[in-house]
């Protein structure tokens, strides 16, 4: 059985289970066991569960098991039950480097986003199977406490991309400026959410998330207005696969002149993000204040990496990638 020394949600030291505050955020209750009483392999071939997995999973990448909380425990939702949580074990794709570390990676990256940068995220944590599998768990923010589902649209839908129109890789077909334009068109308080979106784009670049595609950003109905949904699926993909800096083929924007650094190295630097911020309507004083926060690795991020459930080798690699991205970011153009 895996040894739990830090809260499997907040990563606060000295907890052998979820600390009460983290448990309330993730589960709405104070006593939930992080130890599952089942192995996920038991459910992979059960018809109703397989159908539910297919409804909520990213095709071909990672299984997502619908879950609910009952009597202080996490269990798989049955057919006809509305899930309140999603379980994500390690992906089955063995071509991914260190794939069994992906749940701990996603958990760490989400916690850094929330705790260090103040990014609103889906509630999240880790749980553990009897055979010591590490499983990522996230709370569905689109499900209200009484069970009603809030209307939500991802940006693939909002910008008119789908498999029929753009092919199987449709979610990667676009730029972050496309998302910005859709925010401006669909959000009444667009300036507030544009800043939130900009922070998220910079975070994904610095923290090596090369899978920040159109379906990983959404709008959700908040009262009478649509707002940018909490961040989800944040992951340092560079730990597990080689890829581009961005999750969208068009990068920041196909219409912005690249810096000399970007032209020479193939990687953007701060000035490219400054131009992007201006292009999407942000005030330079505000965007520069945001960018200043990404010029170094915060001590709080280092502490969370150290307390995470990654292996020691993966902790070093995570920090190495982060340092490398910041070196790219802080280079100056001629």
Brief rundown of the structure:
With 334 residues, this protein is α+β, with helices and mostly antiparallel strands.
Your description of this structure?
- The protein is α+β, with helices and mostly antiparallel strands and 334 residues long.
- It contains 12 helices and 8 strands.
- The strands form 2 sheets. A 5-stranded antiparallel beta sheet has the order 2-1-3-5-4, covered by helices on one side. It has a 3-stranded antiparallel beta sheet with strand order 6-7-8.
- The relative contact order is 0.12.
What keywords describe this structure?
37% helix; Phosphatidylinositol 3-kinase Catalytic Subunit, Chain A, Domain 5; three-stranded antiparallel β-sheet; globular; five-stranded antiparallel β-sheet; alpha+beta
The number of distinct helices, counting runs of at least 4 residues, comes to: 12
Count of structural domains: 2
Residue share in β-strands: 5-15%
Radius of gyration: 20 Å
Give the overall shape, derived from the CA principal axes. Answer: globular
CATH topology (level 3) name of the largest domain: Phosphatidylinositol 3-kinase Catalytic Subunit, Chain A, Domain 5
Alpha-beta content class: alpha+beta
How many β strands by DSSP? 8
Second-tier CATH architecture of the largest domain: Orthogonal Bundle
For the record, the CATH class of the largest domain is Mainly Alpha
Q: Could you give the distance between the termini?
A: 55 Å
The percentage helix is: 25-40%
> Biggest β-sheet, characterized?
5 strands, antiparallel
Describe the SSE topology.
Elements: H1 20-27, H2 47-56, E1 65-70, E2 73-76, E3 85-88, H3 102-117, E4 124-128, E5 134-139, E6 152-154, H4 155-158, H5 163-166, H6 176-186, H7 190-206, E7 218-222, E8 225-228, H8 260-265, H9 270-279, H10 284-292, H11 299-307, H12 312-330
Antiparallel strand pairs: 1-2, 1-3, 3-5, 4-5, 6-7, 7-8
Helix pairs in contact: 3-11, 6-7, 7-10, 9-10
């Amino acid at each position: 059985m895996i040894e739990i020394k830090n809260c499997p949600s907040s990563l606060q030291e000295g907890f052998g289970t979820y600390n009460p505050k983290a448990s309330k955020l993730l589960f709405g209750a104070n006593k939930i066991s992080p130890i599952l009483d089942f192995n996920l392999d038991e459910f992979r071939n059960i018809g109703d569960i397989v159908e539910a997995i297919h409804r909520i999973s990213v095709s071909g990448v990672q299984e997502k098991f619908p879950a609910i909380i009952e009597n202080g425990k996490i269990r798989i939702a049955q057919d006809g039950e509305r899930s309140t949580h999603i379980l994500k074990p390690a992906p089955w794709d063995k071509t991914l480097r260190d794939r069994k570390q992906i749940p701990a990676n996603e958990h760490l990256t989400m916690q850094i986003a929330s705790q260090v940068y103040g990014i609103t995220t889906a509630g999240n944590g880790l749980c553990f199977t009897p055979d010591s599998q590490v499983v990522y768990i996230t709370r569905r923010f689109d499900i209200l406490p009484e069970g009603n589902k809030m209307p939500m649209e991802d940006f693939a839908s909002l910008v008119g991309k789908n498999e029929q129109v753009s092919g199987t890789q449709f979610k990667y077909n676009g730029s972050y400026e496309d998302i910005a334009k859709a925010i401006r068109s669909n959000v009444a308080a667009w300036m507030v959410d544009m800043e939130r979106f900009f922070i998220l784009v910079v975070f994904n670049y610095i923290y090596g998330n090369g899978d920040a595609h159109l379906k990983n950003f959404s709008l959700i109905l908040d009262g009478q207005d649509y707002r940018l949904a909490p961040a989800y699926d944040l992951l340092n993909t560079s730990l597990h696969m080689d890829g581009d800096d961005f999750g969208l083929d068009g990068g920041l924007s196909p219409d912005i002149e690249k810096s000399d650094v970007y032209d020479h190295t193939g990687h953007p630097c701060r000035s490219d993000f400054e131009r992007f911020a201006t292009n999407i309507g942000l005030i330079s004083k505000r965007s520069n204040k945001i960018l200043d926060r990404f010029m170094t690795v915060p001590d709080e991020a280092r502490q969370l990496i150290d307390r995470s459930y990654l292996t020691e080798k993966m902790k070093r690699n995570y920090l190495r990638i982060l340092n490398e991205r910041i070196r790219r970011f802080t280079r100056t153009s001629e």
